[in-house]
Amino acid sequence: MSTSQGLRDWLLSEEPTSRRQAKYASWYKGWLTLRSNTLAMLGLFVLTFLILCAIFAPFLATHDPFAQDLGNRLLAPGEGGHLFGTDSLGRDIYSRLLYGARISIYIVLLVVMVAPLVGLIVGTVSGYAGGWIDIVLMRITDIFLAFPRLILALAFVAALGAGIENAVLAISLTAWPPYARIARAETLTIRNSDYIHAIKLQGAGPFRIVTKHIWPLCISSLVIRVTLDMAGIILTAAGLGFLGLGAQPPSPEWGAMISDGRQYILDYWWVATIPGIAIFAISLAFNLLGDGMRDVLDPKEDNS
Amino acid sequence: MADQNVNQTGGRLGPPVPIWVRKSLATVATVAATILGLLFVTFMIGRVMPIDPVLAVIGERATQAQYDQTFIELGLDQPLLVQFWIYVTDVLQGDFGTSIRTGQEVTTDIARVFPATLELATLGTLIGVLLGVPLGVIAAVRQGSWIDQLARFVGLIGYSMPIFWLGLVGLLIFYGILGWVAGPGRLGIFYQGIVEPITGMILIDSALRGEWAVFRNAFSHIILPASLLGYYSLAYISRMTRSFMLEQLGSEYVTTARVKGLSEWQVVWGHAFRNIRIQLVTVIALAYANLLEGSVLTEIIFAWPGLGQYITTSLLANDMNSVLGGTIVIGTIFVGINIFSDLLYRFFDPRSK
């Protein structure tokens, strides 16, 4: 008790004695602001829950998600020990949902590792270099920005072949331009500031300036944008899965599960409805958390 | 885009060419570059396809001689840049090649299916605007009230719900259980072929011809998918309207108007709303473009014979000409609407002159 009290005081101290303390203190204050936002906390809670479900899927699942049991197909929720019923091949929907969470989170993580990084590199190089490099890079960004995202992702997947990795690639290829715009805007405001000039006088090269001194300042606006984009990524991935272009059967991807249940919707509503609720829950959670993060990391933005 | 032009004009002294000419030329160049980029991307997609384009044309049982002949006929022996040039000239003449699936020109196919998408997206945007704009305005005027919370809630749900799933649930409830609307498709089977197409949009055609039974049937088919799409644009439009209005209501001329003793109605609609009209039009244009694209999944759910369904069916049949043709059409419209809203800003907003 007393140690946690001491930690709290150390974190909230008005006069930090080291850079590390100042850094942790600002994180802690951000966390306190986030914690006071009920909806954001709800989002965080749902998200943590889903991630735990994905991690512990083998322990939580009551059945093998791939085991077919044609004698018990299309059972209603609760019937025969199947919490959410069974699908058209007699597979347990509850267990498939758990394993499906792994796929959705896997896709989001991969896209989030690729797209913002590409955007960050393009945007900061463009903003820092200026001149014709800036014009060319921004023109390319504009071209990609002007494309319809889902359609382009469709065409990419069509060309590369269906599958999770290609879906990730397609989504990333269409998702990076907004990050490039944000990173460029941030870079333009930073590049002429005094501390950059000071570092330059100390002899730092452009590479060092961009990676060590500009990137860290772009991170927070990118993080907000990424959190808000995650819902969109999940929805696009689910849409691709629904069209049969994402994860391939028998993999329990949520969009593909909806597509499976589509033909039975009028008689066996749960087969298509329950995976949809899962998709809705995860993207709503990301949206709520994203809104809260924006309030914490970017107080000047109006939280509309 | 805009700041670049400012740099160009701000740097030098006034040249003999008037500013608006140069700005228009810059816009034309931007459009051309973007569309060329679009064509390049679709061209590259067509090249990296794992499907052999020659085999797709002549079938697997053709002899080597036939294969070689078609290979040359398709221009595949030319350098990549030459192939791209041929592709661009073909597309610019409206030639997207032949669809393997339907056996017709892709252009013909698209002309046949496009009105259905246009009809759906237009009605959807109409619903979104009629409900979204007032909702956004009221949410801004009564900031923090229950209606503001409602608007926020509606938006959040809209941003988080998979549209194809909402369509399925909508069908289940309103068609399967309640029976209020007609099921998938554009028209009931008894009403097909009655109305001679004029525009290809059944609602307009049947109204023009006075076939009200057909109109009613078509309406009961379109209302559910259109409301669904409308909901998505409502979420976006009301959110943007709210933030535009908040900006206006916080400015000093609004205080002046209030001090003058104008009624609240006058202040909100006569002053603040007047000033967001241009911004709003650009938002609506973007929402419309998004719906054209967003209708892909909706069309699948509702068996709507539009462009989205055309693209996806072709995709699953490995019919790349149709997929790329459809992508280019939607992409071009997208780019067109983007540029249009940009121009609108430039011409009607005195601050950007």
TrEMBL record, chain A:
Matches recorded under Gene3D superfamilies: MetI-like (1.10.3720.10)
Alphabetical keyword list: Cell membrane, Membrane, Peptide transport, Protein transport, Transmembrane, Transmembrane helix, Transport
PANTHER family named in the record: D,D-DIPEPTIDE TRANSPORT SYSTEM PERMEASE PROTEIN DDPC-RELATED (PTHR43386:SF1), OLIGOPEPTIDE TRANSPORT SYSTEM PERMEASE PROTEIN APPC (PTHR43386)
Cell location: Cell membrane
Principal place of residence: membrane
Coiled-coil segments on the chain, per record: none
Organism of origin: Marivita lacus
Pfam families listed in its UniProt record: BPD_transp_1, OppC_N
Record-given protein name: Peptide ABC transporter permease
ABC transmembrane type-1 domain: residues covered: 101-290
Family: Belongs to the binding-protein-dependent transport system permease family.
Transmembrane segments: 39-61, 105-130, 150-176, 222-248, 268-290
InterPro entries: BP-dependent_transpt_permease (IPR050366), MetI-like (IPR000515), MetI-like_sf (IPR035906), OppC_N (IPR025966)
Topological type in the membrane: Multi-pass membrane protein
Domain of life: Bacteria
TrEMBL record, chain B:
Primary site of residence: membrane
Keywords: Cell membrane, Membrane, Transmembrane, Transmembrane helix, Transport
Limits of the ABC transmembrane type-1 domain: 114-345
Classification via InterPro entries: BPD_transp_1_N (IPR045621), MetI-like (IPR000515), MetI-like_sf (IPR035906)
Keyword rRNA processing attached: no
Membrane-crossing residue ranges in chain numbering: 25-45, 120-141, 153-178, 218-237, 280-304, 324-345
Domain of life assignment: Bacteria
UniProt-annotated location(s): Cell membrane
Bilayer topology: Multi-pass membrane protein
Family: Belongs to the binding-protein-dependent transport system permease family.
Protein name (database record): Peptide ABC transporter permease
